[in-house]
Amino acid sequence: MKLYYSPGACSMAPHIVAREAGYQLDLEKVDIPSKKTAGGEDFWQINPKGYVPALTLDNGQVLTEVGVIIQYLADQKPESGLAPKAGTMERYHLMEAVNFAATEIHKQIGALFNPKMTPEMKEVQLGVIERRFNALEKALEGKQYVMGEKFSVADAYLFTVLNWTGMHKIDLGKWPNIKGFMARVAARPKVQETLKAEGLIK
Questions:
Q1: Are 158 and 186 in contact (CB under 8 A)?
Q2: Can you give the pLDDT at residue 51?
Q3: Is the pLDDT confidence value at 202 over 90?
């Protein structure tokens, strides 16, 4: 399997999950502005949506979208314990957490990368982000991870997109549960491996 990624982008979530689950993935870096891979391929031909991640399976099929790829990787290695069994209430709660990460955290923080965002628009966006963080802060109350005591694919996704707060100078000090969660996930050996592999830490 090959994961098309860009350092620190949302593709870091499946990268973390792959390492946590013990996969030996091929990694192919993508230059997002030019849509070219490190190997010189036209990324539009791999993922017509034009963004990472994309996962090419051994049979040639391509999967896209973070929330789908991370669950696929977990389901192929159920012994990893990264996702509850399909059809259980726990799995639906995981999907709930993954969807929240995708639509309410990823998309809201991701909007701040838009270079055309005016200061007024940014202020409105930061207000939305604050409300979402308040909800997440409550959800993490008394928990090690979003699903409880066990690390799951949802944590890999949340960590990846919350990591962007540093770039946007959003101080997590107001949300001690989120800050603690970020520190716990960052300290995981496989997460450290991922950050090093993507050149984000030495």
A1: no
A2: 96
A3: no
Average pLDDT (4-25) is 97
State the total domains in the chain.
Answer: 2
Whole-number Å distance between alpha carbons of 96 and 111: 21
33 and 113 housed in the same domain: no
Sorting pLDDT into bands at 50, 70 and 90, what band is 117? very high
**Does the residue 202 lie in any domain?**
no
Give CA–CA dist 15/190, Å, rounded.
10
Sheet holding 26-31, edge to edge: 36-37, 26-31, 2-5, 54-56, 62-64
Report the CATH number that the domain containing residue 169 is assigned in CATH.
1.20.1050.10
pLDDT for res 161: 98
Q: Are strands 62-64 and 26-31 parallel, antiparallel or unpaired?
A: unpaired
Instruction: Residue 181: give the domain boundaries.
Output: 89-188
| pLDDT, mean over the chain | 97
62 & 101 share domain? no
Burial class (CB in 10 A: 0-12, 13-18, 19+), 48: exposed
Terminal C-alpha separation, the chain: 26
List the structure tokens of 55: 């996962």
Tokens standing for 175? 């949300």
Please state, in angstroms and rounded to a whole number, the distance separating the CA atoms of residues 46 and 43. 5
Q: What is the pTM of this model?
A: 0.97
* Residue 10 to residue 13: CA distance in whole angstroms: 6
Tokens linked to 3: 């994961």
